[in-house]
Amino acid sequence: MNNQDNEKVFQKSNINWYPGHMARTKREIKEKIDLIDVILEVVDARIPYSSKNKDIDVLVGNKPRIIVMTKVDLCDMDESLKWKLYYENNNYKVIMVDLINDKNVNEIIDVCNILGKDINNKRIEKGMKARRLRVLVVGIPNVGKSTLINRLVGKKVTNVGNKPGVTKNLEWIRVNENLELLDTPGILWPKLDGKNIALNLASMTAIKEEVLNIDEVAIYIVNTLFKYYSTNICSRYNITYDEDIVSVLDGIGKRIGAIRNNETDYDRVYNTILKDLRDGYLGKVTFDRYEDR
Ligand SMILES: Nc1nc2c(ncn2[C@@H]2O[C@H](COP(=O)(O)OP(=O)(O)OP(=O)(O)O)[C@@H](O)[C@H]2O)c(=O)[nH]1
Ligand SMILES: [Mg+2]
Question: Which residues pair with 182 in a beta bridge?
């Protein structure tokens, strides 16, 4: 898919896919960046490349940065580990977490504590007082930034939800005497680039539903699953591979009972595919392929 096609996916009606509040968030992060010691950059382990916001590099400068890969319970570990290695080879510290089952969250606290000690030692050397480490939690919508903060604090302190745009404002949250986090609304970048990035973002619900052409996204999901996870899709919907996409959609419609007036109700088919992927019923998948980068 070329850039033009990529953008077309988001140009349904007149809805702007890069809403004003994202520009505002970026501005507000910029204003606060001098207060920040460490960046937790949150990405979705199923799309570790597509969900990494390139604009963040400019926003955060050269502050210490940790990539947190969330939703590892839903990812294809073999594929996502290739990306972990890739980022590590580019000098990032990378931590993979499963926030539903609370896995590896303590590793983030440990790393922050080490960084915090370092920073405070330097402050004390300069005759300044030690202070709480301030950490910016940043990333695209719906990757789990607020869920991560709730896990780090150990209770619900901020709202979460499986749709983009739940967090609306920047908010400081104190984890303990040594650590304070800044939760931020998800931000995307104004111009889409790279093949399939827009569709990957849409597949993993990083973009509001009304902004996208649901048929294109659902068909992309079906094709990607046939390519890499054929057994998952075939067994979920009791279908076999067919190069004719309409036959495939009809087969899925039949299986899920999406039939109206003897015809397939395609909208229901599309919605079911998106929902099944989101809820993990189509298996553990990673859509960004390291080999295709
Ligand atoms: N399966 C699974 N779901 C997760 C994980 N982390 C977060 N989620 C879910 O992802 C959805 C989005 O989580 P949020 O914490 O609201 O995401 P956010 O990045 O704060 O989103 P915005 O505020 O909209 O930018 C919620 O339904 C979470 O339960 C994870 O590790 N595994
Ligand atoms: Mg949030």
Answer: 136, 172
pLDDT(1) > 50: no
Q: Tell me the pLDDT band of 244, cut-offs 50, 70 and 90.
A: very high
Partnered with residue 183 across adjacent β-strands are 171
Ligand 1 pocket check: which of 53, 69, 98, 99 to mutate, most ligand atoms within 8 Å of Cβ? Answer: 99
266 band by pLDDT with thresholds 50, 70 and 90 = very high
| Amino acid letter, residue 199 | L
272 phi, psi to nearest 5 deg = -65, -40
User: Residues 99, 101, 106, CA angle at the centre, nearest 5°?
Assistant: 65
Six-digit token pair at 150?
């709730």
Rounded-to-integer distance, Cα 229 and Cα 76, Å:
10
The answer on 94 and 38 residing in a single domain is yes
Kindly indicate the confidence band of residue 192, based on its pLDDT and cuts at 50, 70 and 90.
low
Question: In the prediction, which pLDDT does 195 show?
Answer: 59
Last residue of a domain, one of 125, 157, 183: 183
Last residue of a domain, one of 183, 207, 232: 183
Residue 60 shares a structural domain with residue 137: yes
Give pLDDT tens digits for 128-174. Answer: 999 999 999 999 999 999 999 999 999 999 999 988 889 999 999 99
Q: Which residue, judged by its Cα, is nearest atom 23 of ligand 1? A: 167
Residues with CB under 6 A from ligand 1: 70-71, 73-74, 97-100, 141-147, 160-162, 164-167, 185-186
CB 208 within 8 A of CB 165: yes
Quote the domain boundaries for residue 178.
19-183
Residue type, position 98, single letter? D
Residues 59 and 165 in one domain: yes
- The pTM (predicted TM-score) of the whole model is 0.92
